[in-house]
Write a structure and sequence with these properties.
Distance between the termini of chain B: 37 Å
Number of strands of chain B: 11
Largest interface: A-B, 20 and 26 residues
Strand content of chain A: over 45%
Distance between the termini of chain A: 40 Å
Oligomer: heterodimer
Structural class of chain A: mainly beta
Largest sheet of chain B: 7 strands, mixed
Chain lengths: 108, 112
Protein backbone atom coordinates (compact mmCIF):
# COMPACT_ATOMS: atom_id res chain seq x y z
CA UNK A 1 0.00 0.00 0.00
CA UNK A 2 0.92 3.62 -0.18
CA UNK A 3 3.50 4.99 2.25
CA UNK A 4 3.25 8.46 3.74
CA UNK A 5 6.27 10.01 5.45
CA UNK A 6 6.42 13.30 7.29
CA UNK A 7 9.34 15.42 8.39
CA UNK A 8 10.53 16.63 10.75
CA UNK A 9 9.02 14.44 13.49
CA UNK A 10 9.36 17.26 16.04
CA UNK A 11 9.70 21.02 15.71
CA UNK A 12 10.09 23.55 18.52
CA UNK A 13 9.84 27.23 17.67
CA UNK A 14 9.35 30.58 19.30
CA UNK A 15 6.14 32.49 18.80
CA UNK A 16 6.30 34.54 15.61
CA UNK A 17 8.55 32.15 13.71
CA UNK A 18 7.67 30.57 10.36
CA UNK A 19 7.73 26.84 9.72
CA UNK A 20 7.56 24.36 6.87
CA UNK A 21 6.33 20.82 7.29
CA UNK A 22 6.89 18.22 4.59
CA UNK A 23 4.91 15.17 3.50
CA UNK A 24 6.23 12.62 0.99
CA UNK A 25 4.10 9.87 -0.47
CA UNK A 26 5.13 6.78 -2.34
CA UNK A 27 2.57 6.65 -5.12
CA UNK A 28 0.44 8.94 -7.22
CA UNK A 29 -2.45 10.42 -5.29
CA UNK A 30 -5.18 12.91 -6.05
CA UNK A 31 -6.59 13.48 -2.60
CA UNK A 32 -3.97 14.64 -0.10
CA UNK A 33 -5.24 16.27 3.09
CA UNK A 34 -3.62 18.06 6.03
CA UNK A 35 -4.97 17.84 9.57
CA UNK A 36 -4.12 19.49 12.86
CA UNK A 37 -4.62 17.56 16.08
CA UNK A 38 -4.85 19.90 19.04
CA UNK A 39 -3.59 18.97 22.53
CA UNK A 40 -7.08 17.70 23.44
CA UNK A 41 -7.08 15.19 20.58
CA UNK A 42 -9.43 16.89 18.14
CA UNK A 43 -8.42 16.44 14.50
CA UNK A 44 -9.25 19.43 12.33
CA UNK A 45 -9.18 19.25 8.56
CA UNK A 46 -6.95 22.09 7.36
CA UNK A 47 -6.69 21.51 3.64
CA UNK A 48 -7.91 19.19 0.94
CA UNK A 49 -5.16 19.77 -1.58
CA UNK A 50 -4.61 17.17 -4.30
CA UNK A 51 -2.48 19.63 -6.26
CA UNK A 52 -1.54 23.29 -6.42
CA UNK A 53 -1.53 25.82 -3.59
CA UNK A 54 -4.19 26.91 -1.12
CA UNK A 55 -4.09 29.52 1.62
CA UNK A 56 -6.17 30.00 4.72
CA UNK A 57 -5.01 32.88 6.88
CA UNK A 58 -1.51 32.20 8.20
CA UNK A 59 -1.53 28.68 6.82
CA UNK A 60 -0.89 27.61 3.27
CA UNK A 61 -0.24 24.31 1.57
CA UNK A 62 1.32 23.24 -1.70
CA UNK A 63 1.13 19.82 -3.30
CA UNK A 64 3.34 18.82 -6.22
CA UNK A 65 1.65 15.58 -7.20
CA UNK A 66 4.11 14.74 -9.98
CA UNK A 67 6.98 14.82 -7.46
CA UNK A 68 4.94 13.16 -4.70
CA UNK A 69 5.25 15.69 -1.93
CA UNK A 70 3.25 18.32 -0.13
CA UNK A 71 4.33 21.21 2.10
CA UNK A 72 2.44 22.96 4.87
CA UNK A 73 3.58 26.49 5.72
CA UNK A 74 2.74 28.22 8.97
CA UNK A 75 3.65 31.87 9.20
CA UNK A 76 3.91 34.03 12.33
CA UNK A 77 3.34 31.02 14.59
CA UNK A 78 1.13 31.35 17.66
CA UNK A 79 1.01 29.12 20.74
CA UNK A 80 -2.40 27.90 19.58
CA UNK A 81 -0.70 26.37 16.51
CA UNK A 82 0.90 23.76 18.78
CA UNK A 83 -0.13 20.18 18.29
CA UNK A 84 0.47 17.41 15.80
CA UNK A 85 0.13 17.98 12.07
CA UNK A 86 -0.78 15.01 9.92
CA UNK A 87 -0.91 14.58 6.21
CA UNK A 88 -3.03 11.77 4.84
CA UNK A 89 -4.00 10.31 1.51
CA UNK A 90 -7.01 8.29 0.56
CA UNK A 91 -6.54 4.68 -0.45
CA UNK A 92 -9.31 2.44 -1.70
CA UNK A 93 -12.79 3.13 -0.38
CA UNK A 94 -12.14 6.54 1.16
CA UNK A 95 -9.79 5.07 3.78
CA UNK A 96 -7.24 7.59 5.03
CA UNK A 97 -3.59 6.55 5.24
CA UNK A 98 -1.83 8.86 7.68
CA UNK A 99 1.75 9.86 8.06
CA UNK A 100 3.28 9.63 11.52
CA UNK A 101 2.82 13.34 12.08
CA UNK A 102 4.97 16.35 12.98
CA UNK A 103 4.70 17.49 16.58
CA UNK A 104 4.91 21.29 16.62
CA UNK A 105 5.55 23.17 19.86
CA UNK A 106 5.32 26.94 19.82
CA UNK A 107 6.83 28.57 22.90
CA UNK A 108 5.74 32.03 24.04
CA UNK B 1 -21.19 24.14 11.10
CA UNK B 2 -20.86 20.46 10.31
CA UNK B 3 -20.38 18.11 13.19
CA UNK B 4 -19.37 14.63 14.17
CA UNK B 5 -20.32 13.93 17.76
CA UNK B 6 -18.94 11.10 19.87
CA UNK B 7 -21.02 10.26 22.88
CA UNK B 8 -18.26 10.03 25.50
CA UNK B 9 -15.03 11.95 25.92
CA UNK B 10 -13.57 9.61 28.54
CA UNK B 11 -14.63 6.08 29.38
CA UNK B 12 -13.34 3.53 31.88
CA UNK B 13 -14.51 -0.08 31.51
CA UNK B 14 -13.61 -3.41 33.06
CA UNK B 15 -12.05 -6.33 31.22
CA UNK B 16 -14.73 -8.53 29.66
CA UNK B 17 -17.40 -5.84 29.50
CA UNK B 18 -19.28 -5.15 26.29
CA UNK B 19 -18.60 -1.55 25.28
CA UNK B 20 -20.52 0.67 22.89
CA UNK B 21 -18.99 3.79 21.36
CA UNK B 22 -21.50 5.98 19.57
CA UNK B 23 -20.90 8.43 16.75
CA UNK B 24 -23.43 10.74 15.10
CA UNK B 25 -22.92 13.08 12.14
CA UNK B 26 -25.29 15.78 10.92
CA UNK B 27 -23.84 16.27 7.43
CA UNK B 28 -25.70 13.57 5.51
CA UNK B 29 -22.34 11.94 4.72
CA UNK B 30 -22.40 8.52 3.12
CA UNK B 31 -19.13 7.26 4.58
CA UNK B 32 -18.31 6.78 8.24
CA UNK B 33 -15.17 5.42 9.88
CA UNK B 34 -13.74 4.28 13.17
CA UNK B 35 -10.01 4.75 13.81
CA UNK B 36 -7.92 4.12 16.88
CA UNK B 37 -4.84 6.14 17.72
CA UNK B 38 -1.94 4.80 19.76
CA UNK B 39 1.48 6.34 20.51
CA UNK B 40 4.03 5.15 18.00
CA UNK B 41 1.42 3.43 15.84
CA UNK B 42 -0.45 6.43 14.52
CA UNK B 43 -4.07 6.21 13.37
CA UNK B 44 -5.32 2.83 12.22
CA UNK B 45 -8.65 2.05 10.60
CA UNK B 46 -10.86 -0.43 12.47
CA UNK B 47 -14.07 -0.47 10.39
CA UNK B 48 -15.87 1.72 7.92
CA UNK B 49 -19.29 1.95 6.34
CA UNK B 50 -20.28 3.47 3.01
CA UNK B 51 -24.03 3.08 3.43
CA UNK B 52 -26.70 2.12 5.92
CA UNK B 53 -26.37 -1.49 7.02
CA UNK B 54 -23.12 -1.82 5.09
CA UNK B 55 -19.77 -2.36 6.79
CA UNK B 56 -16.25 -3.19 5.75
CA UNK B 57 -13.27 -4.32 7.81
CA UNK B 58 -10.35 -1.99 8.08
CA UNK B 59 -6.80 -2.84 9.07
CA UNK B 60 -7.42 -3.98 12.65
CA UNK B 61 -11.00 -5.30 13.02
CA UNK B 62 -10.25 -8.12 15.47
CA UNK B 63 -12.17 -7.76 18.71
CA UNK B 64 -14.53 -5.14 17.29
CA UNK B 65 -17.84 -5.02 15.48
CA UNK B 66 -19.93 -2.13 14.14
CA UNK B 67 -23.53 -1.20 13.51
CA UNK B 68 -25.02 1.31 11.11
CA UNK B 69 -28.80 1.20 11.30
CA UNK B 70 -29.27 4.84 10.30
CA UNK B 71 -27.23 7.01 7.96
CA UNK B 72 -26.23 9.46 10.67
CA UNK B 73 -25.15 6.96 13.33
CA UNK B 74 -22.21 4.55 13.37
CA UNK B 75 -21.54 2.50 16.49
CA UNK B 76 -18.35 0.68 17.44
CA UNK B 77 -18.77 -2.35 19.70
CA UNK B 78 -16.11 -4.02 21.77
CA UNK B 79 -17.62 -7.45 22.33
CA UNK B 80 -15.42 -8.28 25.34
CA UNK B 81 -13.13 -5.43 26.28
CA UNK B 82 -9.47 -6.22 26.88
CA UNK B 83 -6.64 -4.09 28.24
CA UNK B 84 -4.99 -3.92 24.80
CA UNK B 85 -8.04 -2.03 23.58
CA UNK B 86 -7.15 0.90 25.80
CA UNK B 87 -6.77 3.67 23.25
CA UNK B 88 -8.09 6.89 21.74
CA UNK B 89 -10.99 6.13 19.38
CA UNK B 90 -11.83 8.59 16.62
CA UNK B 91 -14.94 8.58 14.47
CA UNK B 92 -14.99 10.32 11.09
CA UNK B 93 -17.33 10.89 8.20
CA UNK B 94 -16.95 12.06 4.62
CA UNK B 95 -18.76 12.55 1.37
CA UNK B 96 -17.85 10.36 -1.55
CA UNK B 97 -14.39 10.96 -3.05
CA UNK B 98 -13.05 11.72 0.43
CA UNK B 99 -14.03 15.35 0.37
CA UNK B 100 -15.03 16.91 3.65
CA UNK B 101 -13.34 14.41 5.97
CA UNK B 102 -14.51 15.42 9.47
CA UNK B 103 -13.49 13.87 12.77
CA UNK B 104 -15.22 13.73 16.12
CA UNK B 105 -13.44 14.90 19.25
CA UNK B 106 -12.46 11.36 20.22
CA UNK B 107 -13.19 8.94 23.05
CA UNK B 108 -10.33 8.03 25.33
CA UNK B 109 -11.13 4.50 26.51
CA UNK B 110 -9.33 2.84 29.37
CA UNK B 111 -9.92 -0.87 30.03
CA UNK B 112 -8.88 -2.00 33.51
Amino acid sequence: GIQVEQSPPDLILQEGANSTLRCNFSDSVNNLQWFHQNPWGQLINLFYIPSGTKQNGRLSATTVATERYSLLYISSSQTTDSGVYFCAVIQGAQKLVFGQGTRLTINP
Amino acid sequence: DVKVTQSSRYLVKRTGEKVFLECVQDMDHENMFWYRQDPGLGLRLIYFSYDVKMKEKGDIPEGYSVSREKKERFSLILESASTNQTSMYLCASTLSQGIGYTFGSGTRLTVV
